[in-house]
Amino acid sequence: MGRRWSGISLRVSLPDDVCEERQRWLRASLWVQVVALGLFGAVSGQPIGTIAAYVLAAAAFATAAHLPVLTRRLRSAAVALGLLGVSVGLIVLWDGATAAWSHPFVVLALLMLYEDASLLLLAVAVVAGMHILTDSPGEPGPAHVVFVALVGAAAIVAARLNGRLRDELREATQRFRSSFDSAPIGSAIVARDGRFIDVNSALCEIVGHRRQTLLGLTLQELTYEEDRGADAQLVREVVAGNRRTGESEKRFLHAEGHLVWVNVSLSFVPATTDSPEQFVAQIEDVTERKRTLDELQHLADHDALTGLLNRRRLESELTQQIALTERYGRRTCLVLLDLDDFKSTNDSLGHAVGDELLKNVARVLRGRVRRSDLVARLGGDEFAILLPLASRAQARRVAEGIAEAIRERIHITDGHEVRTTASFGVTTIEPGDFPDSVLLRADQALYQVKQHGRDGVAVAPPPPGAMRDD
Questions:
Q1: Domains by residue range for the chain, with CATH
Q2: Are 63 and 81 in contact (CB under 8 A)?
Q3: Could you tell me which residues are beta bridge partners of residue 416?
Q4: How confident is the model over 315-351, as pLDDT tens digits?
Q5: Which among 154, 200, 365, 390 could disulfide-bond with 187, CB atoms 3.0 to 4.6 Å apart, if both were Cys?
Q6: H runs (alpha helix) in 45-113
Q7: At residue 6, does pLDDT exceed 50?
């Protein structure tokens, strides 16, 4: 902290770059006034010696203000003394005219740019001294000194208040900078066009880029191509004011080439007189969380033994297919099958062999269907196949092909050769169906095959009002 006089700080509170810029302007102003003082003296017919004394004195201070060996404070003092020298010279060369006594106010106004209380006090002291030394009738009296002093005091108070506000702003900026840099999640300041204005080290670590590299990229360039459309829509909604903040989960492309799942929270910052519109982005790496959730979802949707979809997921898919059938008239078929006499295999060879047999059958099913078809294990030795965009005839042919593949294949399980067959029931999905009703029709058709000797395919008759099967 600087010294204090009557509660007013005497330190220089301006930032270095601001002070240097103002110093250049004030030096230029001083030189202009030195030249003007010389011209005024010549025009007014004053003796050359008197003119030269004041002009050279002011010019000496102006020259000192350029010397790099002097501290910033001393160079500022040189400018102040030069300006005050011009005031003294003007008053003397103008024979103490009242108009000349207004120049100290010009000096005070210029010195206010330094926001340095000591320089303002110096100016007030010089003006008071000038009155004492040139106390003549007709010249501005003590009231002028008081007025100059009040103006100087007001400038000092204003400088002090401005300095306090700058200190608070500087502290707030430092707190933000510290929080920004040390944040455990990625943080960035993003321009309206998506360009990174500033990034912290956590974001650099997430994407594997150095800070300087990121500052040359945009948010869109960092985003995986397939996710850019949704990202642009989010930005539009936030800018339009439809959402105060926006949050999205998307993928970034890491510097090493792999994808990183991130959760991005965007907050829009409107333009001010000091800065344009921009976003504050909080970016959290959720790759591990995403992987864990995907694994949990996979466990919830799939059969642990065979890796096929489970009954819960099949019923969910049936619900969607029913909705598509009702809206678009899409033809979809369901095939149910179970292995014939599977219980005797388990009883005679053991459950381990039975489990291997179920996994082998699952591989056969996956190898005989399209990528758009869904295969599920409902439990025990019962399986289901969902065939979108398939007619009854097509579904029958698929079932017969699978039946033949299972019948002809010798399943080698735990050193045992096992042959098996399967029974199939086929049905279509109709408008107004429910998952249970679709499963029931397919199960009834399968039961007919069981009753007639197994190892076959039966197609359930269409329910009343069913769609025509093209």
A1: 4-176 (no CATH), 183-285 (3.30.450.20), 302-459 (3.30.70.270)
A2: no
A3: 413
A4: 999 999 999 998 888 889 999 999 998 988 888 888 8
A5: 200
A6: 48-64, 72-93, 103-111
A7: no
